[in-house]
Please model this.
Amino acid sequence: MASIHTKTDSKGQVVKHYLHYRHPVTKIQKRVPFPAAGLAAAQKAKAIIEARIALHKAGAQPFDDPEPTITLDEAVDLFIKARSGYLSARTVEIYSGAFDHFMDFTGGSTPVATLSQADGEAWIRHLSKGYAPSNVDIHRRAIITLLKWLIADRQIERMPFHLAKTPGMDNSLPVFFTPPQIESVLHQLKSPGLLATIQFILATGLRREEVAGSRIRGEHLHLSDAKSHQERIYPLPMSQKIQGFHDAAIHATRRGPLRATTITKEFNVARIAAGITQPGKSVHALRHTFACRKLIESRDIYLVQQCLGHASVKTTERYLKFPPGYLAEVFSGTE
Model:
């Protein structure tokens, strides 16, 4: 009535046990995963299932399914292995960052089936304290994608929670850091590599993901656009000071530049230590800070568009929504 199948890797090492049985009412084939060290638990669950099926057939009691046992870290590992061949490297990186953040918040050993609506909503509230709404929604979509895949793969029976789309910022003013806030955050950055990375982003307006693949040839910065994946040349020459930031950022660790998720995580630690907790004050807000400064410095919206790599100037025009003179007053006396 029930059976246990063991999955091994290419070296013959056990990676998972699966309890298979046919639901006596719905007639659907069920599969319940157990970790590599969980053979005894799988055997015990098999005995329980067979006893429940027998009692159900005898009319003694209704049949109840056992709770799925897959944990969050196991679920993430399965998803990445199964889907990485179908997703772009950039998407895998984004998903992995969202999964890491969710596991840090809820605990990687948490059984997925025990997650609740309250857990999902608490995580979204936590994200909203340090991320822009658009980034919160990217994290939300990543987790929803994971949960839907687990249902399709019969790892869990139902969605443990439902999360509504986070309102975007398209119709609101961009969130930026004021000069005193920037100074406070920079003071909290203890890692020279991270400090240089943040200074480079502030000086160029690049996305955090674009730093690692950027190269300076002569005085010009070449980079791969994070959204279009096409190479573009930054419209302004790099000063010696900015080149110094770039060199330190590219060699931030022995292996090279910092990962985008590491930049976000460590920047948020410094930001909170500096007492800056307003919603939207994220790494991406450094890009907005650059754009605001460059706009009042150059008074050229098209130059700002080229620096940011926006496909359309309509995207850049959001920085024109501030009252006349407001940005100049905020950034007066800064470089």
In short: Residues 202 and 271 are 15 Å apart (CA to CA). The chain has three domains: 2-57, 72-152, 179-330. The mean pLDDT is 86. Strands lie at 2-8, 14-22, 29-35, 215-217, 220-224, 231-233.
